[in-house]
Design goal:
The chain is mainly α and about 90 residues long. The protein contains four helices and two strands; from the N terminus they run E-E-H-H-H-H. It has helices at about 10-25, 35-45, 55-65, 75-80, and strands spanning about 1-5, 5-10. A two-stranded antiparallel sheet has the order 1-2. Strand 1 and strand 2 form a beta hairpin. It is globular, with a radius of gyration of 14 Å. The N and C termini lie far apart (about 30 Å). The relative contact order is 0.17.
Length: about 90
């Protein structure tokens, strides 16, 4: 991460971590599971996280953007801040 003239700009892995935190907070589960670190790494690479029936479309979209496996396609902090799920 680095600071821009306008402020802090997080790296894609920080956006991923935000997605893991939101997912875990709301579901009380990790998005990717395994019995060992290696299994979790494999699950992260090869599996999709579980979408629950109670998750509204905006939340599903947010999580897909935060947890996109391709860091170049992952949401930026500006996209996160502007996302409908955060609208009040």
């Amino acid at each position: 991460s680095f600071c821009l003239k306008n402020g802090y700009w997080p790296r894609p892995n920080y956006i991923w971590a935000l997605g893991v935190c939101i997912y875990t907070y709301l579901t009380e589960e990790l998005p990717f599971n395994g019995e060992s670190d290696i299994e979790v790494q494999i699950a992260t690479k090869d599996q999709d996280f579980k979408i629950f029936d109670w998750m509204e479309e905006d939340l599903q979209d947010l999580l897909r953007g935060l947890l996109d496996k391709d860091p170049t396609k992952r949401y930026t902090i500006e996209e996160v801040k502007a996302h409908k799920w955060f609208a009040f």
